[in-house]
C-alpha cells in the first residue's frame, strides 16, 4: 500500500470533517430527541456485547457518545486505519509483541505449522486452532473516552503501564497467551486493530479479517470458519 504523503494528509482532513460533522449532528439529535437517540444507541449496542453485562447499564456508556473525548478517539481510530497493512489472502504483518515476561517476539512466532492462529486485538475476553490476545492501547481509558463504572485504566504511558493493564486481564484466566503491543503500537497500526478486532492467520497469510469492533466484532464468524476447516 503506502500512499503519497499529500494524499494521506487530504484523506485525514476529510476524515476530520466527516467525524466532526457526525459528532455535531449526533450531539444535536441527542439534545433534541434524547429518547429516540437512546433507543438508537441501544440498538447499536445490541450488535456488540456492551449491553449483555447487567452491571453495565446504558447510563454508563450511552451519554458518553458524541463528547469531545469520543470525537478525539473516533478520529484517532479512523486516522490509524490508514496505516492498515493486513489484507485477506496477503502475507500477515509480522509485527513485534512483548510477552508478560518481558520477552520481545513477533506475531508469526505463535504460528504452529499450518494451524490457524486467531489474533484477538483489544481488551477483555480451543481445539483445532491457536489463539493469541494482543493487548493494545485502551479504548476507554479514564483520561480518554471514559465510560462510567468501568475498570479504571489510564492511557498507557509506558510498556509497564500496558503490562499492568494486561495483567488485570490475565487474572480472568483467558484460555490463551496474552502478549502486549509495543509502545510504537505497530501491531495495532498494521492490523488496523483499534479499538478491537479479530483476525485469523494461516501459513503466514491473513485468512480472515474481522470487522472493526465493537459493532462489527463477531467471534461467531471465526467459529463458522473453524467449523468448516474441521
Ligand atoms: C501508543 O499508544 C499509547 C497509548 O496506549 C500512546 O501513549 C503512545 O503515544 C502511542 N505510540 C505512538 C508511537 O503513537
From TrEMBL:
Gene Ontology molecular-function annotations: thyroxine 5'-deiodinase activity
Gene3D superfamilies assigned: Glutaredoxin (3.40.30.10)
Keywords (A to Z) from UniProt: Membrane, Oxidoreductase, Selenocysteine, Thyroid hormones biosynthesis, Transmembrane, Transmembrane helix
Top-rank taxon: Eukaryota
Parts of the chain that traverse the membrane: 13-33
One Pfam family, short name: T4_deiodinase
InterPro entries per record: Iodothyronine_deiodinase (IPR000643)
Catalyzed reactions per annotation: 3-iodothyronamine + iodide + A + H(+) = 3,3'-diiodothyronamine + AH2; 3,3',5'-triiodo-L-thyronine sulfate + iodide + A + H(+) = L-thyroxine sulfate + AH2; 3'-iodothyronamine + iodide + A + H(+) = 3',5'-diiodothyronamine + AH2; 3-iodo-L-thyronine + iodide + A + H(+) = 3,3'-diiodo-L-thyronine + AH2
GO BP annotation list: hormone biosynthetic process; thyroid hormone catabolic process
Membership in a protein family: Belongs to the iodothyronine deiodinase family.
Role of this protein: Responsible for the deiodination of T4 (3,5,3',5'-tetraiodothyronine).
Protein name: Iodothyronine deiodinase
Source species of the chain: Cyanistes caeruleus (Eurasian blue tit)
Amino acid at each position: 500500500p503506502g500512499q503519497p504523503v499529500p494524499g494521506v494528509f487530504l484523506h485525514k482532513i476529510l476524515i476530520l470533517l466527516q467525524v466532526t460533522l457526525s459528532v455535531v449532528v449526533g450531539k444535536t439529535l441527542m439534545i433534541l430527541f434524547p429518547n429516540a437517540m437512546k433507543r438508537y444507541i441501544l440498538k447499536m449496542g445490541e450488535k456488540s456485547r456492551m449491553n449483555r453485562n447487567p452491571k453495565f447499564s446504558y447510563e454508563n456508556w450511552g451519554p458518553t457518545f458524541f463528547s469531545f473525548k469520543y470525537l478525539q478517539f473516533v478520529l484517532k481510530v479512523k486516522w490509524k486505519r490508514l496505516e492498515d497493512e493486513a489484507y485477506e489472502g496477503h502475507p500477515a504483518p509480522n509485527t513485534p509483541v512483548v510477552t508478560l515476561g518481558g520477552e520481545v517476539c513477533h506475531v508469526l512466532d505463535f504460528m504452529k505449522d499450518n494451524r490457524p492462529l486467531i489474533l484477538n486485538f483489544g481488551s477483555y475476553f480451543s481445539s483445532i486452532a491457536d489463539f493469541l490476545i494482543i493487548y493494545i492501547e485502551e479504548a476507554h481509558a479514564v483520561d480518554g473516552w471514559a465510560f462510567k463504572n468501568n475498570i479504571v485504566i489510564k492511557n498507557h504511558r509506558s510498556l509497564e503501564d500496558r503490562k499492568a493493564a494486561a495483567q488485570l486481564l490475565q487474572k480472568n484466566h483467558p484460555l490463551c497467551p496474552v502478549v502486549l503491543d509495543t509502545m510504537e503500537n505497530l501491531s495495532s497500526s498494521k492490523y488496523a486493530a483499534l479499538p478491537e478486532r479479530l483476525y485469523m492467520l494461516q501459513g503466514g497469510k491473513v485468512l480472515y479479517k474481522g470487522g472493526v469492533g465493537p459493532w462489527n466484532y463477531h467471534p461467531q464468524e471465526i467459529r463458522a470458519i473453524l467449523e468448516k476447516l474441521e
